[in-house]
Automatic annotation (TrEMBL):
Compartments where found: Cell membrane
Annotated InterPro entries: LptG, LptG/LptF_permease
Higher taxonomy: Bacteria, Pseudomonadati, Pseudomonadota, Alphaproteobacteria, Hyphomicrobiales
Designated name of the protein: Permease, YjgP/YjgQ family
GO CC terms in record: ATP-binding cassette (ABC) transporter complex
Length: 363
């Protein structure tokens, strides 16, 4: 039997209301937990309460974006349990409607929500978390970002008690250890320009940049040539790599260009590629969450055991979270291909959910 559009809209509306309520609850819990953690981290520093509050609000969209699949899971379970308790699913089945037909509105809704989250919500969350990280660097870490990568090359800033220097390089090798075609501008503590260094390459060593074929130009003096030149630095390879913009600060639409630019500059863009594929797979992961929810909530309430099924559904959600973390960690380390690491949670969840529903309906 073909299900009328009125039933499609009715089941879709019930699922939307339950998912929205679940998402709001998840956002509230996430904000409280994150805000308490921010208060703990800033407790030993003189950070205004309003600044801490704004930091929590700025990071909330990014956190809630990651919780959307679980909001869909719990919201769908809630909606399906309510429809089962009121025997609305029983009536639908008695009229010849299959489980796949009354699951279709929720699956379509999950795909629409996921697509909107990636295309619209993600750019907003990325812009806000970028502002959060700037405040975090200033008030919590006590230092600002050191590194910027653009089409014109790499820009790096370092500072110490003797002043600061700004380094520009056209190319990078060995993940930031070696710079090619280098220009270094030196400033004193009063931000007055004191010298410029042009060199073929510079290598980051223990507490110094080892510069080859350096030409040092000082105002009022002749340019000096040095076969090797040492510039003291407090930078380490770890600090240089940490200064990269985190994937969360780049929107789904900005990531491809950034990946290409980083690769051309000589840096690995593996974690950015992984993040892009993870975002691309999110609508399908949300649809898979609906199928997983249906497995644990379509059982008739008169048969009993509903509480155990709810607990099993919640446990499956946490297991999926753990599995996703494991695959992403393997992908970030290059152990697993990026596409497989990002898409396998959605694919496996959909296959498992579909198989269980087939078993319940036809087995």
């Amino acid at each position: 039997m073909k299900m009328p559009w009125t039933m499609y809209l009715y089941f879709g509306r019930r699922a939307l209301m339950a998912i929205a309520a679940s998402f709001i609850i998840c956002m509230a819990l996430a904000f409280v937990i994150d805000f308490v953690e921010l208060l703990r981290r800033t407790g030993s520093r003189e950070v205004p309460f309003t600044t801490v509050l704004s930091m929590g609000l700025l990071r909330l969209p990014s956190i809630s974006e990651k919780m959307m699949p679980f909001a869909v899971l719990f919201g769908s379970m809630w909606a399906f349990l309510q429809l089962s308790r009121t025997n609305e699913f029983v009536v639908a089945r008695a009229s010849g409607v299959s489980a796949w037909q009354f699951l279709a509105p929720a699956v379509a809704l999950a795909l629409i929500i996921g697509t909107g989250a990636v295309a619209v919500y993600n750019p907003l969350a990325a812009a806000m978390v970028s502002r959060f990280e700037a405040l975090e660097s200033k008030y919590v870490r006590g230092r600002t970002s050191l590194l910027a990568v653009s089409e014109s090359g790499l820009w790096l800033r370092q500072a110490d008690d003797n002043g600061q220097s700004v380094i520009h390089a056209l190319g990078v090798t060995n993940q930031g250890v070696e710079l090619r075609d280098v220009i270094i501008f030196l400033y004193n503590n009063e931000d007055e320009f004191i010298a410029r260094i042009d060199a073929d390459n510079a290598e980051l060593g223990d507490g110094q940049w080892k510069i080859s074929n350096a030409q040092v130009a000082t105002p009022g003096e002749r340019r000096a040539l040095h076969e090797t030149y040492s510039l003291p630095t407090s930078l380490t390879l770890e600090r240089v790599q940490e200064s990269f913009a985190s994937p969360d600060t780049l929107s789904f639409w900005e990531l491809p260009e950034f990946i290409e630019t980083a690769q051309e500059a000589g840096f690995s863009a593996l974690r950015y590629e992984l993040h892009w594929h993870q975002l691309a797979s999110r609508p399908f992961l949300m649809a898979a969450m609906v199928l997983i929810a249906a497995c644990f909530s379509l059982r008739l309430t008169r048969l009993g055991g509903v509480g155990q099924l709810i607990v099993a559904g919640i446990i499956s959600g946490f297991f999926l979270y753990f599995f996703t973390d494991v695959t992403l960690a393997l992908g970030a380390r290059g152990v697993m291909p990026v596409v497989l690491a990002a898409w396998s949670p959605a694919f496996i969840s959909a296959m498992l959910g579909g198989a269980l529903i087939f078993h319940q309906e036809d087995g």
